[in-house]
Amino acid sequence: MRKMRRKGLASMAVQTVATAKNVDLGPASALSCRECGERFELGPIFACELCFGPLEIAYDLPVGDPEGLRKRIEAGPANIWRYAPLLPVPEDVAGKPNLNPGWTKLVQADNLARELGVEPGKLFVKDDSGNPTHSFKDRVVAQALEAARAFGFTTLSCSSTGNLAGAVGAAAARAGFRSCVFIPHDLEQGKVVMAAVYGGDLVGIEGTYDDVNRFCSELIGDPLGEGWGFVNVNLRPYYAEGSKTLAYEICEQLGWRLPDQLVIPIASGSQLTKIDKGLQELIKLGLVEDKPYKIFGAQAEGCSPVSAAFKAGHDVVRPQKPNTIAKSLAIGNPADGPYVLDIARRTGGAVEDVDDAQVVDAIKLLARTEGIFAETAGGVTVGVTKKLIEAGALDPSLTTVVLNTGDGLKTLDAVAPTTGPTATIRPSLDAFRDAGLA
Amino acid sequence: MRKMRRKGLASMAVQTVATAKNVDLGPASALSCRECGERFELGPIFACELCFGPLEIAYDLPVGDPEGLRKRIEAGPANIWRYAPLLPVPEDVAGKPNLNPGWTKLVQADNLARELGVEPGKLFVKDDSGNPTHSFKDRVVAQALEAARAFGFTTLSCSSTGNLAGAVGAAAARAGFRSCVFIPHDLEQGKVVMAAVYGGDLVGIEGTYDDVNRFCSELIGDPLGEGWGFVNVNLRPYYAEGSKTLAYEICEQLGWRLPDQLVIPIASGSQLTKIDKGLQELIKLGLVEDKPYKIFGAQAEGCSPVSAAFKAGHDVVRPQKPNTIAKSLAIGNPADGPYVLDIARRTGGAVEDVDDAQVVDAIKLLARTEGIFAETAGGVTVGVTKKLIEAGALDPSLTTVVLNTGDGLKTLDAVAPTTGPTATIRPSLDAFRDAGLA
């Protein structure tokens, strides 16, 4: 990863098509290195020139008038742009063409609570399958899109094996960008259709997902990629901020209150770290009362490098070769793994994993209790929640929010082998009576 | 149809488990025959005892204080229950466990408008793929569920080939009802999974969809079906009212204004008639200014009995055997066909159809212009809109709303054969350059 970043960084300096001087990204004031704190002008760069640490957005946040800010947010649109004053986007973002994701349902999951032994009224599912392309990726892509607009990019791109491809293709279509998305050539047809239907260019790469990523890094450093915004590479600092909106929404939907416990899936780990950042911002802005909260990370056993490091007490994450049905979480070398470990330990949370069978069971559990059909990543968080409660690590008497980041329609294969009709009968009352279902 | 209704009616009189005396369904005051006007107490009946006409809900609507009503609605939840004062549901419905569908996006479709030659800012897509199970069926099932609760039913049921099965299964799960859904035994595995994953009973019937329907009619008349609410049979009058919420939302999202033209898909025709009913109610209540609007019905050529009748100037609809990829619209003998004809003619609209190739083209057109991946029914409405504009039947200078009632993820097969990668290449810059996509 480090090597790729260095290379990307060096080349991006040449490619910057706009700088802070003519860029309006609202309260975003600079890029700041997460490791050494060095600051850079806003631009399509993602790694520190000094220490190669990841860059993130620094803000001039509207502190000092929490009541005014809260009213402004509540009067805003029913999507992520209600939080525009806290995001790297121009003030008039809500009027620009994009998919307007967010403000998804926070479901009070009383049936699931009963099954898991959680106190009634204390368990919530933040259901991001309600986003326009049915995954949380719409949140992050919407941010990257605004950055791409600000920097004068005309093509939106990414490497992807699924959700991200659709989110980029759809967002580019709405916003009038060209899109060019790279995928491994042997993806299932369903995923290819979801990525291709929005009419952008879709390029199958003969190789693995790692090959696709390596190719994209090369492309960013080449004149061929000029004018291209790779949402999860050269626009990553902006892109990643989209996950903060999950924190904002959860707290606002709880009545401007911090939850006590959150269970969040880990792919690269970025989402978890940004949710923590969002919660901290709400505290600093006075929008919620400051109080402790615990963050729990969830992985699939077949790709559990962060969980393994947490349990072993390590500060670094040893890469794994993924082998799990939770493909949207299958990042064997998660860039933000160490930060996730920090957060889980600092907040008194944990990182846990469940095996594929538990993932499938959890998808079905959530579906039959709450009518929410989650993708495998949702099975991971629900499964981990169950496991953490059983182990006594998660307190069932406290307000707990579990994230479902995607839609079961996209990972039908996970449940198909074990999900079918109760009975098949002739169309007669006798046959129905014999089936014993009346 | 008539024969089935008669049979259902006779048997339902025995089965009624609650009557108007102890039923609280808010402003719903009675059932009223659409043909002869005879009124009946609220109950799980669906056909007139006198003339066998369809029953619909009569209301005591809150007339006389439009400003107060508007404020009450605007202060309500971001789902269909903001309109509870206009629906057959108890006043406290928003606090009861259900999927809380609705308040889906009304997308200003400027890119699509440009392609279709519609004036900028005048074309909108009401995108019901944002509902919990990603189709408009969540709206109608939510109403049926409240009626089922009011009548003391404990099992929610339906016959279905797709969207409805998932909507019923999910709603029953959330609300703590048992569900038992009937499908043809030879459905595609994907649809079976979507219907079965919510954990209710799913029964495959050896036969066609017509056989499934006939079996359900028998079951309603048999003690085996006691305590069962069939959302689209004995709860149909309540169920159908859910479509009114599309009219309410469209007008509120336009700033409490009637659109000039609406393009609505026709399956049974119920949705179109209820949207008209909803618009009329808003006028009567003084929530929108009274002005003319035109309603256009959309069918697939392979199942276009209403379109054929409209074009031939007939008042009755001759049944067809469906043969189209738009399976969610494939009702060859649409119960509300004659009412649809009335409305199209009364409002100065029309009924039109497009062939399967045009449906596929329209799905792709909507996806590449607006980033909305519609199911085949959405391809039908967009395709019909294009055709009507080209024919001069739909005025491109007026405010037009096109409905997308479902999600492309559920009908991937429709676009899969013609949707794929632009190119497949080796992971090298040279190969990418050669592909001519930079």
Automatic annotation (TrEMBL), chains A, B:
<dbReference type="GO" id="GO:0004795">
    <property type="term" value="F:threonine synthase activity"/>
</dbReference>
<keyword id="KW-0456">Lyase</keyword>
<dbReference type="InterPro" id="IPR001926">
    <property type="entry name" value="TrpB-like_PALP"/>
</dbReference>
<keyword id="KW-0663">Pyridoxal phosphate</keyword>
<dbReference type="InterPro" id="IPR004450">
    <property type="entry name" value="Thr_synthase-like"/>
</dbReference>
<feature type="domain" description="Tryptophan synthase beta chain-like PALP">
    <location>
        <begin position="101"/>
        <end position="406"/>
    </location>
</feature>
<dbReference type="InterPro" id="IPR036052">
    <property type="entry name" value="TrpB-like_PALP_sf"/>
</dbReference>
<comment type="similarity">
    <text>Belongs to the threonine synthase family.</text>
</comment>
<protein>
    <recommendedName>
        <fullName>Threonine synthase</fullName>
        <ecNumber>4.2.3.1</ecNumber>
    </recommendedName>
</protein>
<dbReference type="Pfam" id="PF00291">
    <property type="entry name" value="PALP"/>
</dbReference>
<dbReference type="InterPro" id="IPR050147">
    <property type="entry name" value="Ser/Thr_Dehydratase"/>
</dbReference>
